[in-house]
Amino acid sequence: MFAVHLISFFFSKLQEDPTKKVDRFLHGMRLHDDQLGDISARFQAEMKKGLSAKSNAAAAVKMLPTHVCSTPDGSEKGQFLALDLGGSKFKVLQVKVREGVGIKKGEVAMEEKIYPIPKELHAGRAAELFDHVSESLKDFLHEKKISLEKKHPLAFTFSFPCEQASLDQGMLLSWSKNYRARGLQGKDVVQALREAIDRTKGMDVEILAMVNDTVATMMTCGFDDQCCEVGLIIGTGSNACYMEELRHIDLVEGDEGRMCVNTEWGAFGDDGALNDFVTEFDRDVDAASINPGKQIFEKMISGMYLGELVRLVVLKMAKLGLLFDGRVSDALRTKGKITTGDVAAMEEYKTGLNNTKNILIQLDLTPSLDDCIAVQHIGTIVSFRSSNLVAAGLAAILTQIKQNRNLEGLRITVGVDGTVYKTHPQYPKRLHKVVRRLLPECQVRFVLSDSGSSKGAALVAAVAQRLASLRRKVEETLALFKINQDQLQLVKGRMRERLEEGLKSKSTSTIKMLPSFVYLTPDGTERGKYLALDLGGTNFRAMLVRFKKQRYRLYHKIYTIPLEFMQGTGEELFDHLAQCICDFLDYMGLKKARLPAGFTFSFPCEQAAIDTGTLVTWTKGFKATDCEGHDVVNMLQEAIKRRNEFDLDIVALINDAVGTMMSCAYEDPQCEIGMIAGTGTNLCYMEELKNIEKIDQRNVPTKRDEETHEAEEDKQNAGANKKKTEVNSVVSKMCINTEWGGLGDDGCLDDIITSFDVEVDKNSINQGKQRFEKLTSGMYLGEIVRRVLLDLTRRGLLFKGHVTETLKTPGIFETKYLSQIESDRLALLQVRSILQQLGLLSTCHDSIIVKAVCGAVSRRAAQLCGAGLAAVVDKIRENRKLDHLSITVGIDGALYKLHPRFSQVLKETVRDLAPQCDVTFLPSEEGSGKGAALIAAVARRKQEM
Ligand code: 0WK
Ligand code: 0WK
Ligand code: BGC
Ligand code: BGC
């Protein structure tokens, strides 16, 4: 019988090939690559519309954030219950990921049971549908003898468009496919399931994650293939998800890392974007569907509709006499009579034609061979168009990923599931071919999700569980650096007590409160040329400052201080300084000038006068020998003498905080505080002389002393100075260099010092000293961060637990990295490249944690400095018996100037802790050099008197 058919087939070849008439009839469905390229571009445009906050609401393609931020990384483990609802089969499963009896290492074992969903529940009340789901779950626990007592984490695959604010919450936007249960749209699906489980009673289930089936499929395939970053469903419905850059997802906070986006591409065209490709048959399918106007793209490609499309085409051609000699049967007129399964059967290699015949006969038709060939070809065109359209959508997604990563080509895997893809013989091959034709520069691998999506859902739940416990553990560590308002008030109080104590003559305070013998801030009358020398935390600067009519010129040169001089002998260190000065004077052609000099020495010095000072103790990275207890001005003079190439008249020795205050006071007379937030930390301020018990008040100069000579010079413009000279009052204030870095050396900060701080102190060159500085300054913040990162890595919470030599290297994590890593401008990728430079390979998630650690450490530093400053400004306000004080703080140091958030947190903390003070921060432009020259100018004038 069949042979006869074959012969007449060849005979008919001589007649017109029946497929030709079908090709003509369905030319609107036969899409060539340009059209597919166009559809792909349209879809990518729709994707961008869905991702952007501005256009998302109106976008047809919703691009729903899924809060799945990483594909499986091999560390997921645990036992989970899983529900898989929304595809052709509702399944309840138990998934054991690398854990549990008889699970081979790295393996996942699953037990599942399919529970039919009675048709009426598809369109009934959602509560009933979920009761059925929950009762099925309970039945499954019974059947699999899974204890009802134990708390079971559950992963829920729900294959409908949901707007999710987190993994364990999701509002149903609309039903699709053959579901339209009432009372759930706009509601939280997870909550509805929880309520149903509560109604069913007798189960203790914790719903950890709800995912779309595309996401679960991507994760399932990602378990074995790390390149799997796209999930594709071509089943009853159709949809795709992929890993998008977080910075492109406006609806989710943060721009760091990636997040899986559920495109819900089924709705592509709902806004008419595909009207020029939608055929009359598509419109008929849509009109007869339960959601007309919705899911246009899905209705052109997915299993729920392909069979119907074929039926409508066959019906139309039959009516037009192009098939079955125009005879039409009721069956052919009946919706759903040709299923997508039938279409797949028609396309079976060998049996396709015969299957077609049988299908048509079942439709009470008596098809000729040509009819069978034609109908088979209709099936081919309809399913071919489906795979072409899916390819176009996929090409848009892969192009988006390629562009996101600025790549020429892309090597990626697509995880696929769905009855159409799985059961339609030709579908996979066709899809792969067209994708590779549309994207020749990409290497796209397709992996079929062999065991359904619940493995993936369980992995998401495992990730959620792990991330939750990881986040909890990281949060616990970061919480150690959190300082609340009460604690800050305590620090402010402790700072205040020790400021007061430090002013006393026999003070035991760890805050040394060193008199600076600087009484007045500049008044703009300074004249002349001065050399300013500035030994700070990281380098040495020599400057020439020339003051003229309230203006100044400044030339400077910076010299590094090699470590061997910082920690060598005092002689070597000061010889190095002398050599730098010599080089500078040579460069300025002033070797013969014997200039008056101001020496900024950023270490605690006990001074008896403005031009002498004994180094009390080294701080920061310095520990040159034979310096502590010695007069640093002498040591420099000795070195200059030893060099015997130039001579200097060092008329002032000041601390960098004092120099900074003077520099800024030159611009803003209200500046009476100098603060350094740099390698080290310190603050000075103008204290009432009467409060400084430790100095001999008799040696206090009068204002005249401080101002007289101007009178001579300005006799010309007598009027102006007339008022000044008459006042011969005693100066009332002196600048005190607090050396607040020592707060806590008496243990008064032990309640906020963490074990990491203790380690940093123990491994510093001045253990037990400068505890406040070691919590707040640039020399130490990077090291604190490194030790926290080391601890988190050792606990497996970071860098996959790989403790690299780099991470074990003290001082490797410089504080400048904090400033870089915390800057908002820096995308996570750049954070990763900083970590890479440090030899630390990191994931996006790692970098988020590193950034959080940097933020916690720098925030605490700024808050503590804010508490300290609040203590000082409140003291000054009370000194002056003011209800309200306006004052300016001259500030310098790389931490204040370069860190993206330090200055803001410092300002906020002072405002909160000293509400009666209005504090203005004035960053010092030229460093403390100008300040040193100003003080030198005042000091020199006094000498000449
Ligand atoms: C099997 C997955 C399920 C998904 C389904 C889609 O486990 O999550 O919804 O594939 O294909 P369908 O069953 O609709 O053909
Ligand atoms: C610049 C000043 C200098 C001070 C330094 C502090 O001119 O006196 O020591 O700031 O900042 P650091 O260099 O420690 O960041
Ligand atoms: C739903 C998607 C789902 C797809 C495949 C569509 O109708 O809107 O959420 O992923 O079907 O099941
Ligand atoms: C020193 C201070 C200096 C501060 C800032 C501290 O280590 O003890 O004298 O002002 O660093 O440079």
Automatic annotation (TrEMBL):
Residues 22-222, 474-666 form the Hexokinase N-terminal domain. It is an enzyme of class 2 (transferase). The keyword Repeat does not apply. InterPro entries: ATPase_NBD, Hexokinase, Hexokinase_C, Hexokinase_N. Residues 696-725 are annotated as: Disordered. This is hexokinase. It comes from Kryptolebias marmoratus. One of its GO terms (cellular component) is mitochondrion. Residues 230-463, 672-938 form the Hexokinase C-terminal domain.
